[in-house]
Design goal:
Layout lengths: L34 H4 L4 H10 E2 L2 E2 L10 H10 L1 E6 L3 H15 L18 H7 L2 H11 L3 E11 L6 E4 L7 E2 L3 E7 L10 E3 L10 E3 L8 E3 L10 E3 L5 E6 L4 E3 L8 E9 L4 E2 L10 E4 L28
Antiparallel strand pairs: 1-2, 3-12, 4-14, 4-16, 5-13, 6-15, 7-12, 7-14, 8-11, 8-13, 9-10
Length: about 325
């Protein structure tokens, strides 16, 4: 399979329209959002968060993978958690040929082989909605979770560097509150450019500037505002995943090894978040947990069990 280099999304305009919320006051909450960022959230979403959290500990998720108080506090402090096991490396190895087959097709509706394949392929939806992921997200963000996007990141040998960045810089969401899971399909090691994260970097917003030609993305975090020497390597076995939020600085080096590295990124929002620009006409959100109490976004049903990507195969450039 040929190489390709998926970006988060094409560069978006930053002047998104505001969402109107009732003019009400609220108290600061003790939850995974840092205080300065929480104070920027309009009163409506803040009140919604109050209903979803108890002081100091998130409302318990219904599954068996709920996080401990110490893990929740670690997420608040560092902006990420993991790695955690979703399945064994052998189980992921059994699924990898089917994932490769998905990446070798292009869906007719949303056009990109690497992006939002949960919309047409049940396997990808099942990976994104794994209880190991959803239960932990619910421990952090409350009982109501909506699947917004999925994206594969394929770094073949020689693939370019992904620059240091905060995800929300690229995304058409208001307010930009997102939790991501990053699932290792192949082994992710230092040698084949595993993800690197800066702990605690989510507690401030980093200006983004134009990236160089040696980067995959068009924009990158301004390195005058962070210290890359504090980076943590997140090596993962196939079937493991991490969680991080929309402001956690992360990147990966060029893949200078002779081994490919595939990962699946899962983007989850809360019902009070509005999607301001949709990825394609058939782009819908799926309910992962709880209910959609707000009704702001287009919702739909996931692909039925047994669905596979149905499209003409084409060479990936």
């Amino acid at each position: 399979m040929g190489s390709f280099y998926p970006c988060l999304v094409p560069r978006q305009r930053k002047e998104f329209p505001s969402v109107a919320w009732p003019d009400r006051t609220y108290e600061a909450l003790d939850h995974p959002l840092s205080g300065d960022v929480l104070n920027c959230i309009p009163p409506g979403p803040a009140l919604y968060l109050r209903a979803s959290y108890q002081r100091g500990v998130a409302v318990e998720s219904p599954g068996q993978n709920r996080l401990s108080t110490a893990e929740i506090e670690s997420f608040k402090s560092d902006g990420f958690l993991g790695p955690y096991p979703m399945m064994s490396p052998a189980e992921m190895a059994d699924l990898t040929p089917e994932i490769e087959a998905v990446l070798a097709t292009t869906p007719s509706g949303h056009q990109k082989s690497w992006h939002n394949r949960h919309l047409d392929c049940r396997l990808i939806f099942d990976l994104a909605s794994s209880p190991a992921i959803v239960d932990r997200m619910a421990s952090l963000y409350g009982p109501d979770l909506l699947l917004w996007r999925t994206s594969f990141f394929v770094k073949d040998p020689g693939a370019k560097r992904i620059p240091w960045h905060q995800d929300f810089n690229y995304w058409p969401l208001e307010p930009p509150v997102i939790v991501s899971a990053w699932i290792a399909i192949d082994p992710a090691t230092v040698e084949n450019s595993c993800l690197q994260i800066l702990p605690g970097s989510h507690r401030k917003v980093i200006p983004h500037i134009k990236a160089g030609e040696e980067m995959i993305f068009d924009e990158m975090g301004d390195d005058r505002y962070y210290d890359p020497d504090r980076a943590v390597n997140l090596e993962m076995a196939p079937g493991e995943f991490i969680l991080f939020n929309e402001r956690t600085l992360h990147h990966s080096h060029p893949n200078q090894s002779d081994r490919r590295r595939i990962a699946l990124a899962v983007r989850v929002i809360l019902p009070f978040v509005s999607v301001l620009k949709w990825d394609s006409p058939d782009h819908l959100l799926h309910l992962l947990a709880g209910s959609d109490r707000m009704g702001f976004n287009r919702m739909g049903d996931p692909p039925v069990a047994g669905d596979r990507a149905i499209a003409d195969e084409k060479e990936l450039a």
